[in-house]
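Forgive a beginner's question, but might I ask you for the amino acids of a protein and the tokens describing how it folds?
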Amino acid sequence: NGEFDRCFGDPACLLGGVLIQPEPVLDLPLLLARRVAIDASGRIVVAGVGKKAEVAPHSLAAVRLLANGMVDASFGEDGHRLVNFGMVEEPFDSSSLYALAVQGDDVFLGGTARVSGGEHAAIAKLDAAGDLDPGFGGDGRVSFFYNDVYERHRVTDLVLQEDGKLLAAGVTEPNIDFDSPRDCGVARFHADGSPDTVFAFDGVFAADAGLGLEPARYDHCNALASRGNAIVLFGDREVTGSNYDTLQIRLDVDDLFADGFD
């Protein structure tokens, strides 16, 4: 009825909320929540950015709560899991999370992994126990880039297709600054984390949504939808300085861009 469920996360039924305390419950000095989903067992998965110590690198982070809002201690390390990619030496080996998908009791985290001179798009898969699934990418982790033009790539959304393949949408840009050009990116993977090479260009694609006009300085895709053969990217596009339009790009299985869409 829209009222607070005051027993959620609070056995005394007084507050109606749960505070995931970094200390001492989860031994995390930093946890920034960015996404939430509910798994097949009704448990709540909260994902974001975390680290274990002030001098530690930022990592992809997931915390699982029971349906009553209490931390599920059977998940990962006392309820949480941090994932990094080990691409460069600490303390610069930091990762950041932007996307979350849940299939059954499996959890997929998407974001970035820092590499020397830039960032790779990154995806990690956790099993029902909160451990990295070695059946995905060999060690539960996959990193990639949408093209070989720009140095920075990130995943902003993840969607699982009906056939079990994993779609990732995101952004690619030069390693310069916030105002540098950006293009939308999309990639597709098999259930084992290998690229689906029949999709786009060996499984990845970056699109400047010029739409027959001058290339935009800024294309940003931050959401993704998929049904049947249709794949739609959503975001925004800079038309002129500080003026933006809503952006939609539709792809399909046979043709990179879907004919008849706009």
